[in-house]
Amino acid sequence: MTLRHHLPAAVAILGLGLTTSCLLAGYEPIGADPDVMYRSLKTELVRALARGTLPFWSSRLGLGVPLVAESHVAAFYPWNVFVYRILDLFWAFRISMWIHQIATAAAMYLYARCLGLERWGSAFAAVSFSLCGFASSHSGHEPLYLIMPWLPVCLIATDRFVASGRIGWLAVLALAWGLQLTIGHFQIQMWTAGLSLLTGTWKTRVEGRPRWRIPAIAAALATGMAIASVQLVLTWELTRIAGFSRPYEQLASYLFPPGIWMQPVLPSLFANVPVRKLDDYLATLTTTAVESTFYIGSIPLVLAMVGMVDTSDRRRFRVWRLLVVVSLVLATMPAWFPTGYWLLTYLPGLGWFRCPGRYTLLTSLGLAILAGHGLDRAIRSNRFYAGVSIAAVFGISAVAWTIAQLNTPAFRASFGPSDPTLRIAVASGCFAAAVILALLCRWKWVASWVLVVVTTIELAALYHLGPVEWNWSVAYPEKSPITQQLLKQTDVGLIAGRCSNLVVRLGLTCAYPYLGITPPPPNYLLEQATFAQGSTTPELAALFVRFGVTHAVWLETDVIPRSQTVFVARDPVLDGLLEPHRTTRPIPPWKIVKYDDHWPSAWVSRKVKVLDGWAEMLPSLFNVKNQDEALYDRHDAPPGSASPRASVASITNQDETSVTVEHDGSCDLGIRRIHYPGWTYAINGGPPRPVLKANGGLQAVRLEGHGPSRVTFAYRPTNLRSATLVSLFSLGGTLLALSSFVWPKKRD
To answer: Is the pTM of this model over 0.90?
Structure first.
């Protein structure tokens, strides 16, 4: 092939590479999710990899978390193990994002070619999908942009298998979906599997391929799940123990509201506005700016309308027209038919995940493919002009609707101090220019590559001006006076306040971890530790004492009783990481407070109190004056002591994995760590035994007789060995099937 054949792919991939190349210079998403959640969790991954292991358990997140089971860490994703082992946290984070963005464009280009799109149409589809509103608004959510390139890879493998029947493509599908599953979060993975089955079934039917290929696709997906079983088994256990489930109200929130249906037509309307103001408006529509950003670019939308209208080649694109409609219905349904959406949540797969607005990813995928098809000059003129006319009418209607909405004070206020009239005029002009460029391209006055380049420029600007804050890398904790002072504090236990997971990057422990799911109990008892209002209650103050909360970071304006302020300073670093970007209000100074009293991380109780259920346990937890009393639920209490209770018992030595207790009778050792399957203890080198559950869900050990007793603790995830064997066996079989690509083809 000549260079001309590769030019469209090069333009698309190079465009994505340049758009996100600022990552290599240190310009990146910052703030709440990127810093508080993902980079903080990855800190634990980096520390574990440096020790030659994985972060099976983290003691820096609340009262302890089995971190590999928290799928957002993606500790079993091979790329993460590689890049976070050889690079530091910040370089690994940025390079991962850059590589996966480029990979999304490349994979989407190849899939568009599989569907029969022309080269420039494939480049057009690749750019519009890779830089769509979903990609922009979720550039701060690491799992989602890591997952995106594997979606078209799975569709490519499905398409090629149905076309050729070669087992190697089934192996590619299994391997790609298995890798996608190890990234965690699982929402888009379920959609990937559904799309693979849907498109595979459709292609099998319309091309008259053997029907056995449909169950073969399902078998490949099952193999992919087996490859990822080492992650899935641990995550399933965590969600079961945490009791992680969402009511309908949570499942239906964060939709794409029909009230902002003009956004795909006028994508620049909400770009670079105060996110706090915009979220105040969108909260009335039960969503946020991040979860309701939907566009594919002005020119792609015009040409997608052409692709929708041109039904001359129904066999290739009917499934994508259907997908656009169905996914948009699902994204908006909670607003106009809540009962119908409630019924849908009872279907497997549809009721597992929240944020229906994320279905716009599928809408964007379908529209991007149809836009690439709309660039095809072989489309008949009457259908082309019909599509452009529909796009023009759609655009005029969107502008009229937006102008009418200006009479709504909340809508007008969402733009902050800027003039919404000027914004509407600029956005309308962009859409009008898109219609004109589409016509000029049809008349051959403008080359196809011009549309691809213009679209790349438009989407690149929107990508960086969306609801996610992009800025230069923040020197945290080096340039943060609050965190530097926090490192100088003595006798530091758990840290409450607004910093949440950020303190993990200091090597300290946050009181309540910010995770993708509810942390396992009893972590949830400290959930209010991140809210100033909740910290004022006497009940939470008692839990602070019992669970060892010693310090907190608050704003100076936060009123925190039963504490003393030890340091106050302005901190631009924390302002940038913790406060919503483009905020319109001044940010007050920050302060470190210290709480008066706290229990240690390990203690010995000479008395035992057995309680009936949580109704009796919770009030007893608020009583922090009697550290000498171990609290057991009746179902968890061990048998009575075989020796008299101790009159003297104390801890004489303690490190990260062991505690030495001097005692003259039976007593109970309490540990400030959640009770979780896989934790065992051994006394004086004896056989390991499962830890006991006491004190509201913490670990305990019953010590009999006389001391000293050295108690050693160890954690090994349950079912890890069997899950690993399943993963390795499935991976081996997949790699063997993958080798079929080098087998000689059968002669016809």
So the answer is: yes
